[in-house]
Amino acid sequence: MAFPYPLITLEEHFLSESVVEFYSANSRPDPYQETILLRRCREDLVEIGDIRLNSMKENQVSLQILSHAANALALDPQTCIKVNDELAKSVQQHPESFAGFATLPMIDPGAASKEFRRCIKDLNFVGALIDNNCNGRFYDDPFFWPVFETAQDLDVPIYLHPSYNDQTKALLFEGNYPDAIAQTLSMYAWGWHSENALHIIRLFAAGIFDKFPRLKLIIGHMGEMLPFQLDRIIRISGQQWPMAGLKLERQLRQVWDENLWITTSGMFTVAPMATVLRQYYPFTRNEWGLQFLRELKESGLVTEEVLEGIAYKNAEKLLGIKAKR
């Protein structure tokens, strides 16, 4: 059964050899070679060509927004420039199929802001995708805020993507089981998502949305566990936090409605989507995503207008792009 709408996918990664070289120069192993459960997808990540394009065609994906895969080490400005130039070439070769999110050197916010502007103005990227931490540091520290100010000035979104964090892995996820299990628990099995959700709340509590009220952030994986907890956090932050001296102009419900965009990004089951839809409407295979949308259509949970928005119209509006019809 054909799906009736074009599809735009926002979390589509690639792996640059420039980053692998950066790891080597800093005596850091490449996680996509070292980690047994990630090694299996390395070939798919380094390929931006016929295999990817054929998979898109077979599964009705009209446009992929490409971004670099999560990094195990904060990248320097020179490496980010190489990554972005590499991505720009692929986008230029297939402009109807690909668009780009910038990779930024968050370790140097001044350089990151400069590279952000170059990517939007000169390379025609549609936003940036940044790792969820910078060598273990989170972005509620105002040190990083020039990058978010730049995003507001450029009127483009930042995708806050889960990434490796050795500090939380050792503290929370290592236990009486093989280290490969601890790795998955600290990453895509649990830790990445809970940490990314916490990061959004940290940014909110630090007042970043009061400082930059037009900031647009994208979070993946059905909202990184936030939809399930949202009403409780709204009550606590609105009723209790002011008693502790934190009085924010923009409350969490307003931030959720106006500053945050949600993608499915690999969470391809209907049940959690029901939670997302009640709160907000907004390294897997393309065919799973297409099957999920077919099931969502058949479920009766959404109207045709909402389904069309999920498939491509929300992304078109947010990113200023057009899907092939």
UniProtKB/TrEMBL annotation:
* Keywords noted in UniProt: Decarboxylase, Lyase
Enumerate the spans annotated as Amidohydrolase-related domain: 75-321
Stretches of the chain forming a coiled coil according to its record: none
Could you name the domain of life of the organism this protein comes from?
Answer: Eukaryota
Tell whether Transferase is among the UniProt keywords. Answer: no
Entry's transmembrane regions: none
Leader sequence residues: none
Could you say which protein family the record assigns here?
A: Belongs to the metallo-dependent hydrolases superfamily.
InterPro entries in the cross-refs: ACMSD, Amidohydro-rel, Metal_Hydrolase
In the UniProt record, does the keyword Lyase occur?
yes
A Pfam family found in this protein is Amidohydro_2
What name does this protein carry?
Answer: Amidohydrolase-related domain-containing protein
